[in-house]
Design goal:
Length: 491
């Protein structure tokens, strides 16, 4: 048997990448292209859907060549920035407008009106989400209300809506398939967590015609087949998941309680909650982690707004450090934080505090406070924010059983150890940090039958990890926790 590869298309917010994996998870190649960010107004963020497609295709072609041709690629897996909406015409296959990106806040007024009309409790109960511009359904409605071409296509019955995986599959199949996997579909506000397809009432509430939406599929299986003309031969598309879900799978969080945190600009935390539909009393999100053979596995999701962006702020705005990595050297250069606490509420406090009006503070300054103390306290804030999330998850009945970390900030060993110390739980970091792409490769491996199930994919494809075990003495830990609580009260 020839040694076929798995091709992953990882469509992020700032770049699109094609990544080639061997069946044991080893990296065989990667090709990346930047995506143009359009900011037409304050709070608006747009992408050019044709640019996404063309650059993704170019990267994919490079990796198919690297694999030795289409016959050497067993399957494609797709993972993507979630909640970004593309509108296109089913007849022409052309985008009707710019894509509205997940960060875009233009539907804030619409969300407020729905909330004021008392709809949030029901929407939360059914979808696990909040009435927030973040989610894709309100963006679809905005396009119908404000874009003439989108409205005209809706009237003519040729409008297709989709998130980015849906758009890519449409293009990759030459317009044959209009599908969205359940993990992406669960971010629209239109899919009840426990229903197999879109909900008529939710579609009516948001004003999105159901016939414009893709068919909801599993996250693995023979989901579609590429147009043979595009990549030099037909290749099956066998795995799809939103980026945070894919990272959770790529971290091997396949048992309830297993949790991953991605520390990038902000931090995204997802905990596997198994096959029970999750419910949060702490305004955490309930979401589909993956769907296989029609069966859903769920996750609770929480986010910290400020993570790596705090280190960037120390570097670029305050000029306290020259490089992000210097934060680690400074933290190690002193025995403790000298009483300094940083609460990084630079853009409000997210879960589980939910105080959008909050602003950051540095407390405990004295003449003996140096930049090392502030750098150390900034890294310490990551452990505290993570622990607060863990408490919120626990209050919702989801006890973490260890934490797996990734993202650009997770290279910081000092921070990883501090998180373990403050959580009182082991923290695991894979040597191979591209967990999002690996998760999509694992889904594609299962979907194509290369692996029998996700557990086998995890056991055979996830490589070596480094474990940080809690080592702080309890007195020091309690002091840290009480100082953090005191500082939070001042925010
Ligand atoms: P994103 O995907 O959100 O753009 P990344 O995962 O690339 O972010 O992570 C980059 C962030 O990590 C930056 O905000 C940077 O400040 C931070 N970072 C990078 N290296 C370190 C380090 N050694 N210690 C602390 N923070 C770091």
């Amino acid at each position: 048997m020839i040694d076929q590869s798995i091709l992953v298309l990882d469509e992020g917010t700032t770049s699109t990448r094609a990544i080639l994996f061997a069946q044991d998870g080893a990296l065989r190649g990667a090709k990346q292209a930047q995506l143009t960010q359009h900011y037409p107004r304050s709070g608006w963020v747009e992408h050019d859907a044709n640019e996404i497609w063309e650059r993704t295709l170019a990267c994919a072609r490079a990796m198919v060549d690297k694999a030795g041709g289409a016959a050497r690629v067993a399957a494609i897996g797709i993972t993507n920035q979630r909640e970004t909406v593309v509108a296109w015409d089913k007849n022409t296959g052309e985008p009707l407008s710019r894509a509205i990106v997940w960060q875009d806040r233009r539907t804030a007024d619409f969300c407020r009106r729905l909330k004021d009309a008392g709809h949030e409790a029901e929407v939360r109960a059914r979808t696990g989400l909040l009435l927030d511009p973040y989610f894709s359904g309100t963006k679809m409605r905005w396009l119908l209300d404000h874009d003439g071409a989108v409205k005209a296509a809706a009237d003519a019955g040729t409008l297709a809506f989709g998130t980015v995986e849906s758009w890519l599959v449409w293009k990759l199949t030459g317009g044959e398939q209009h599908i969205s996997d359940a993990s992406n579909a669960s971010r629209t506000l239109l899919l009840p967590l426990d229903a197999s397809g879109w909900d008529q009432e939710l579609c009516e509430l948001l004003g999105v015609p159901m016939e414009t939406l893709p068919r909801v599929t599993d996250c693995a299986g023979e989901l579609a087949v590429t147009d043979p003309g595009l990549l030099g031969g037909a290749i099956p598309i066998c795995g799809m998941a939103g980026d945070q879900q894919a990272a959770t799978i790529g971290q091997g969080c396949l048992t309830p309680g297993e949790t991953k945190a991605t520390y990038g600009t902000g931090a995204f935390v997802l905990s596997n909650t198994g096959t029970q539909v999750p419910w949060s009393d702490n305004r955490l999100l309930g979401t589909v982690l993956y769907q296989l053979a029609g069966e859903r596995h769920y996750a609770i999701e929480g986010a910290v707004f400020v993570a790596g962006s705090l280190i960037k702020y120390l570097r670029d705005t305050l000029g306290l450090i020259a490089t992000a990595a210097e934060s680690e050297d400074l933290a190690r250069s002193i025995p403790d934080n000298g009483g300094v606490v940083v609460v990084p509420a630079l853009s409000g406090l997210g879960a589980p505090h939910w105080r959008p009006e909050a602003r950051g503070i540095i407390s405990g300054l004295g003449f003996d406070t140096g930049r090392a103390h502030i750098a150390r306290a900034s890294l310490e804030a990551m452990a505290h924010q993570t622990r607060d999330l863990a408490s919120g998850f626990a209050a919702d009945g989801c006890q973490w059983t260890g934490l797996r970390i990734d993202g650009g900030m997770a290279v910081n060993d000092w921070m990883a150890q501090d998180i373990a110390d403050i959580l009182g739980q082991s923290v695991t970091r894979p040597d191979f940090v591209e967990t999002t792409a690996l998760g999509a490769a694992m889904l594609a491996a299962v979907g194509s039958g290369l692996k029998t199930e996700l557990r086998e994919a995890a056991d055979t494809m996830i490589g070596a990890t480094k474990v940080f075990s809690p080592a702080m003495n309890e007195e020091a830990r309690q002091q840290r926790l009480s100082r953090w609580e005191a500082a939070l009260k001042k925010v």
